[in-house]
Write a structure and sequence with these properties.
It contains four helices and nine strands, in the order βαββββαβαβββα. The chain has helices spanning about 30-40, 90-105, 130-135, 205-240, and strands at about 10-20, 45-50, 55-60, 65-70, 75-80, 110-120, 160-165, 170-175, 190-200.
């Protein structure tokens, strides 16, 4: 993931999700052994956390780049936030795909999908939905739907999914959060997501990293050709400083 993405947004990140068909064992020894293996490669990941639906190993929140790995009942996830120059943002995900099947007894038949998410957060106040509606819909036919009411957008979170061929899928999504006119002042960012997915099963476990590399390569091309010019830049230009 290119460090230059940071010039277009407040935060950027690359996440991996390995979806499974059968539930994983949540035994202490199983998960802790996996986390210890990851920590040996990334000594800065020192914080073990238990959430409602998952167990996670993270680096301190103030550390840049911030790394995390999480195990849920039917998935394994990992993320790298704000990778800078010289940071291999992909290696953590490759490590997770290499070692987790052996620690968690994952079979090639058990693989439901491999998913990669490119995320871009843009700090914004005011009404997030109004920002997205004006910058992305403009004078399009869809914008006319707001004339059905008083013209104030209260939910505008477009999602578009496309087939890339060969069983690969891509989803473009804009996520808005609490903002003026809904539940108060918008203090969280507007997020733009590009999610790429390839469904399983796979023939061999070693194919996981090949699929991951293909998802990343296609994702980077789509970020440059579609996500930045079509979604991120217009939203960024539509955000009024100080609101």
């Amino acid at each position: 993931m290119s460090a230059h993405y940071g010039a277009f947004c407040t935060d950027h990140y690359l996440n991996l999700k390995l979806g499974l068909k059968l539930e994983l064992s949540q035994g202490r020894d199983t998960v802790l052994s996996l986390f210890e293996r990851v920590r040996r490669q990334y000594p800065g990941m020192t914080e073990f956390r238990k959430y409602k639906d998952e167990l996670a190993l993270e680096s301190p929140s103030q550390e840049t780049p911030h790394r995390w790995v999480a195990v849920r009942s039917s998935s394994i996830r990992s993320g790298v936030v704000n990778p800078g120059e010289g940071c291999d943002a992909f290696r953590l995900h490759e490590t997770v795909l290499e070692v987790s099947p052996y620690y968690l007894s994952i079979s090639p038949l058990d693989v439901d999908f491999v998913e990669v998410l490119f995320g871009f957060d843009l700090a914004a106040g005011g009404n997030h939905d109004e920002i997205v509606a004006h910058t992305l819909l403009g004078d399009s036919p869809l914008a006319g739907l707001f004339d059905a009411g008083d013209g104030l957008a209260i939910d505008c979170q477009p999602v578009v999914g496309v087939s890339l061929g060969d069983g690969f899928e891509a989803y473009f999504e804009v996520k808005t959060r609490a903002a003026a006119g809904r539940r108060g002042r918008g203090e969280e960012p507007i997020s733009v997501y590009l999610t790429l997915r390839k469904h399983g099963p796979i023939d061999e476990l070693k194919d996981l990293n090949r699929v991951f590399s293909t998802l990343v390569a296609r994702g980077e091309a789509l970020v440059e050709s579609q996500v930045l010019p079509v979604l991120v830049n217009p939203i960024r230009e539509g955000i009024v400083p100080g609101l």
